[in-house]
Amino acid sequence: MGKQGSHKSLRSEFQGWHSKTLLLQGLKSDSSKCNSCRGIYVGKKHIRAIVVMFGLLGCLFLLDSLIISFFEFTNLQPVSAPNNSSLFQGRDSYIYRKQSPVYMYERLLNLASSALAEKEFKQESSNLWVEPFRQASSWKPCAERKVQSNSGKPVQSNGYILISANGGLNQQRVAICNAVAVASLLNATLVIPEFLYSNVWKDPSQFGDIYQEEYFMNTLKDDINIEKELPPHLKSLDVEAIGSQITDADLTKEATTADYIKIVLPLLLRNGVVHFLGYGNRLGFDPLPSDIQRLRCKCNFHALKFAPKIQQLGSILIQRIRKYGARRSMLDTQLLGKFIHNNQYHEGKRGSAKYLALHLRFEIDMVAYSLCEFGGGEEERKELQAYRERHFPLFLERLKKNSTSISPMNLRKLGRCPLTPEEAALVLAGLGFKPETYIYLAGSHIYGGNSRMEPFTSLYPNVITKENLLTDSELAPFRNFSSQLAALDFIACASADVFAMTDSGSQLSSLVSGFRTYYGGDHAPTLRPNKTRLAAILRENNTIKWNRFEVRVRKMILEGQKAGIRSYGRSIYRNPRCPQCMCKHH
Q1: Do the Cβ atoms of 312 and 398 come closer than 8 Å?
Q2: How far is CA 411 from the centre of its chain?
Q3: Is residue 93 part of a domain?
């Protein structure tokens, strides 16, 4: 019986008792009026019956109120989620409000579901799990090689470089390798970089908590001088007071070597030390001397090894994703170090042969900042605007001053909107990945929680995360260290058989795809949707046939997988296919 039915039966029963009570009260009233004539005599048995009746009525009142309270309280309970509730809940989502699934492309989802059901018992194309272009296998890692023209590091150092890197794990990684390049450029000694504490990330981790310090220093010892700290005579200096502190205001974004020689080198020579405060993406990719470019690659792909505790838990994570299935690739060796020996096949346990890792960028801050709309109607618009007012007041001020604004519809056409979980699922379905595919979900909390993930999990139910593969006790040492948790995601994404991103501008996606290009050969494909082209395809949601949708999606992804050489000015961390980083074998 439903809640409404139970309420109705209780209330009708109560009304019957209530009618009897009124009748008895009437009789009692009439009896008092005729008491003088003794017309009606109420005996002890009748009094007892009335008392019992009132007692029963009281119990019914109490039971009715308890049942109503129970159902009202149930409606306020947190929405339960299958396995991934902690990850799917958005940072500012209303956990105590049950939300219906949000669909933007329901017709296409139905077509995808039917198409995947038909393919369930058919052989999956093996092309999904390999690089489509043979040229990918002709590029081999060689940034660690010694270059004949490079005379090695000079004996005399011009001074010390201090780095305070900002951002999260991936921004810090870029800053470290840029700092190595700058130290070589300026003939300076690099002090092991420090990481600034951020109120956003709230992570006190330092270099040695994430990377192996000694390995880093030994790998680069023939290229630059690296020390763990300043010498005693410089420690007491107020670097800012002597004018040796460099901020973003002093250097343009992606500054050139000429900028460093003109602005930084004189300070270094005069004071013996410079401090780059809040250092990040402050060194351009071109033009840059070949030996400096090679050193950047050597730092990123060879010198930065995760700390043993991260490698060890990363190895356990990979084992559980693959269900102890064996795989020994160059990628795994580089990521897991000596702990790859733990990642072996266990007799009697069959693993999922392959898995796909997906970096789904759909956190509330990214969603709100985009100014796009995602099918949630007026309620969504109000919620995102409230978030902007709380977190991005300066951004809103700039918008008000800007006379020309772009509508959410046009933002989507221009490819400026983050892909929703629903759109990501449609891309995977269009490519032909089967419903039983294991999908490792990396990233932060999904805006909208389960209401947004429902369209995704309806097509691909085998979604796994580090939170539901590792135990609480295993995760406990990492719990308050977002960069160390992000390192686990880095390992899982880089080691995956296929890596799919939804935002090519993401630092994690860029670094992971570059790592896979460098070490993966032709067995580490990366999927990069073109958001402008995808938006054009999805605008035909109401008319496009599924086979046509598949053709267009596959063509879009294939063009993003071309194994071309790095273009001038493009990130060497994202695409290391260039003579300074990799060697091409014919």
Answers
A1: no
A2: 22
A3: no
